[in-house]
Amino acid sequence: MIELNEKAGIYAEENVLSVLKEAFAKVYADGYRDGYKDCQDHVSVNLRISNTEYVDLGLPSGTLWSSSYERIGEERLYLPYDKAKEMNIPSENQWLELRKECRWSIDSDKLYCIGPNGNSIHFEETGYISVKKNKELTAWSFFWIKNEEENGNECYSVKMSWNTAYDIKSYSTFRGYNLPIRLVRNY
Q1: Closest of 40, 53, 43 to residue 184, by C-alpha
Q2: Which of 83, 87, 160 lies closest to 124 in space, CA to CA?
Q3: From CA 17, how far away is CA 97, in angstroms rounded?
């Protein structure tokens, strides 16, 4: 006669895989449904795959903007356009939406961009790095935007300045300059 513990062990060996498969399938399905519901309800979720933190500004397109410039350690990352375009930098349309849909506010050393939902990001003076690898310290904040049509050595970037009033422009920039990087992401 088989002892109860031995019989229980045989039963467990025969059934453990099917029980685990069912449990993992349920956990996966529940997580998928919860994530889908959060997306429908526009619940703000940390979407970090890297160290980049994104902010939902409540833009009609659903575009999330990085809370700050990209960094390597404590240093701000500066790249020429051809390297930057491989990243998820904003398109011209995403930039125009940000500019149009948000309120802009000045606070001495920062320019705040306040979205329709009240969340905000800010821009500080960044300067740029010239072709000679000299950092040009200016009272301007810069970042690249993706060009639909590239025109030789010129690509588009955003240039912002503020003192008592702000001046925000997108303009043609030499693609060899190294500008800081701002990223975007969609829901």
Answers
A1: 53
A2: 160
A3: 52
Confidence of residue 1 (pLDDT cuts 50, 70, 90): low
The string of pLDDT tens digits covering residues 130-167 is 877 666 666 678 899 997 766 666 778 888 776 655 66
**Contacts of 159 by beta carbon, 8 Å cutoff, 6+ apart:** 140, 141, 142, 168, 169, 170, 171, 173
Backbone angles phi, psi at 39, to 5 degrees: -65, -45
Residue type, 69: Y
* Contacts of 17 by beta carbon, 8 Å cutoff, 6+ apart: none
Cβ burial of 46 (10 Å; 0-12, 13-18, 19+) is exposed
Q: What is the pLDDT of residues 8-43, one digit of tens each?
A: 777 777 776 776 677 667 777 777 776 666 655 554
